[in-house]
Each structure stands twice: as C-alpha cells, then as structure tokens.
Amino acid sequence: MTRELSLLAELPGRPAISLPGARKDSDFVARAARQLLATVERVSNLVRPPAPPLERPEVCAVEEPDRVDQDLRILRWHLDEGESLLALATAREPGALDAFPGARDQLLVAATDERVLIADLADFRREGLVERGVPIGDVRYVRFRDGDPSGRAEIDVITKDDNLTWRFGKGSASNPSVRELAALLADRMDIPAAERIALRELPAAESAAKQLAG
Q1: Apex 140 CA angle, 72 and 90, nearest 5
Q2: How many CB atoms lie within 10 A of CB 114?
C-alpha cells in the first residue's frame, strides 16, 4: 500500500481512484494519496522503508532531459532495496506501430545492477506502470548498430526468452551515452554453463539423427 500511495502522490495525471463522496479530479487524488500515505507510514512503522531518491545516472540517453527528475521520482518505487540504477534511456520499439492498431512505440529503459526495466513511456508517466523486468543474468548478447543514414542508433538485446530492439533519435549514433548503454549491458551478458554445453551437444545430436534417418 505504501508503494501504491507513493506512486499516486507522484502522478497527478493518473486516473482517479474511487473515493466515496469525493471529487475525482487528479489533483484531489494526489492530495488524498499524500494524506493517506502519511497516515499509513505512521501506523505501519514503515514496514517498507521510504524509497531513497534516485540520482541521475551517468549513462543517460533521453530525448527530454527536463523530464528526468520526475521520471526518477516514479522509478524509485520500482527498484528493490539495494538495487542500483546504472542507466536511463528513452527509445522507440521498431515495428510496434505496425503490429497493433493504436499501439505506441516510445519506451523508457532503465538498467540496474539486477534488471533491465522496460516501460511504455506514456503509461509510465501517467500511471507509473513498468511492463517488464528482464534479469541481467538473462542477457545473452548485445549489439550496437549505427549504420542508419539518418544517424539513428539501434541496440539489439538478445535474452534467454526474447529479442529486443531499441531505436534512438536522429544523431544518436554519435551520442556517447547510447554507446555506453550498449557497452554496460554487453559487460553483463552471460551464457550459463548449461546452455554452453547444450550448444556443443546440438551438432552431435543432429548428426546422429541424420545417420539414423539415412
């Protein structure tokens, strides 16, 4: 409850919650959330300690620098105790607009020492939602691409279960922070021993199957 009320207090634009007999405008909800939060913290003896403010990370590749502080105030409630923010970026998901009618393609990407958090940028800023968190240990391969004629950089992240591509704005191919984000993730990519063994055994298994079929 502390986390949810804290998010409500940070999100004046979030759709209003149902409060019996109360006005349902967003400013009222934010004020009510702050009051409820203060009460909950007093009576709960701070079961979950307040999330400390996040400092702007050194690796920061965002299109709207003036929104970073507000984004960090929201993001802090999604980090676990002791988790450190290493990088923050905004990017687009290629093909998202074509895949679903009415879809959005703007993403917020936050890399910590434990996970890569990925959120729809509009939903994150309006409702504090983070769609998914990919454990750092699931990152298998990272590739930085800068061959686009418009100077847009792309980062491909291959994980255990999915392939991700983030496209950055014009001129981003020369943005050091975008390269540093790719390098940061590449430093942490890993193929577990069990998967390495499986990769070595696969050709032998395929060869044996062909011999049996022949």
Answers
A1: 25
A2: 17
Angle made by CA atoms 190, 75, 163, in degrees to the nearest 5: 35
Domains, the chain, in order of start with CATH, read 2-43 (no CATH), 59-193 (2.30.29.30)
Q: What is the pTM of this model?
A: 0.74
pLDDT digits (tens), the chain, 214 positions: 556 656 666 775 554 444 454 445 666 666 666 666 666 655 555 455 667 899 999 999 999 999 999 999 999 999 999 999 999 999 999 875 554 555 568 999 999 999 999 999 999 999 999 999 999 999 999 999 999 988 999 999 999 999 999 999 999 999 999 999 999 999 998 888 887 787 777 555 555 555 566 5
Query: How many Cβ atoms are within 10 Å of 109's Cβ, its own excluded?
Result: 22
C-alpha–C-alpha distance, residues 56 and 78, integer Å: 16
Task: Identify the DSSP state of 25.
Answer: -
User: Residue 158: CA atoms inside 13 Å, Cβ hemisphere, count?
Assistant: 7
In whole angstroms, give the CA distance from residue 181 to residue 168: 12
Burial of 124 (0-12, 13-18, 19+ CB in 10 A): buried
